């Protein structure tokens, strides 16, 4: 019998049994939550978050029971990449009205305020662990958002529709095929 795999598991992998959130509650503050049973704006601590963690953990909303950051799913990310240790939160991002095909469903690497992840090399380590498949990877420092994968030469060809040179043809074709549903209509 085949079971349906959710999109996060399909793109990031299953939850790793040897990784737990522990004291990390970064997602409880940084992320926007907008579900029928729970809403919270980005950048504001959840109303149920205390200095000891979630005050309603046993009865927390469905989204809080089922959502996990990429550190809990991507085995190539080192243990030091846990968001509260690295200063970076990585998750699957869904944009309802994407500006281009790379924004609809992508991996978002968010540098947290005060993070030294660029200076100490953790940002590069995390990006290296994510940029190896046909999933767009974006990086944001809170002020701007940059496409990190695919590289700019491939991305510009995918977006323009121009004929790629022979050495990029297969890669550009794979991205176009995978993300055709998100292509902007003129």
Explained architecture:
This protein has 186 residues and is α+β, with helices and mostly antiparallel strands. It has helices at residues 7-12, 27-30, 62-66, 83-86, 122-130, 152-160, 166-178; strands at 33-35, 38-40, 49-50, 53-54, 88-94, 105-111, 137-140, 145-149. Strands 5-6-7-8 form a 4-stranded mixed β-sheet. A two-stranded antiparallel sheet has the order 1-2. Strands 3-4 form a two-stranded antiparallel sheet. The longest helix is centred in the last third of the chain and has 13 residues, at 166-178. The model has no long low-confidence stretch (mean pLDDT 91).
In short:
The chain has 186 residues and is of the alpha+beta class. It has seven helices and eight strands; from the N terminus they run ααββββααββαββαα.
Q: Count up the helices.
A: 7
Order of helices and strands: HHEEEEHHEEHEEHH
End-to-end Cα distance? 42 Å
Task: Flag low-confidence runs.
Answer: none
Structural class comes to: alpha+beta
Counting DSSP E segments of at least 2 residues, the number of strands comes to 8
Instruction: Report the portion of residues in β strands.
Output: 15-25%
Rg for CA atoms: 18 Å
- The quaternary state of the protein chains shown equals single chain
Strand order of the largest sheet: 5-6-7-8
Binned, the helix content reads 25-40%
| Major sheet | 4 strands, mixed
Describe the structure using short key phrases.
186 residues; alpha+beta; 4-stranded mixed sheet; two-stranded antiparallel sheet; 8 strands; globular
Topology overview:
Blueprint: H1 7-12, H2 27-30, E1 33-35, E2 38-40, E3 49-50, E4 53-54, H3 62-66, H4 83-86, E5 88-94, E6 105-111, H5 122-130, E7 137-140, E8 145-149, H6 152-160, H7 166-178
Parallel strand pairs: 6-7
Antiparallel strand pairs: 1-2, 3-4, 5-6, 7-8
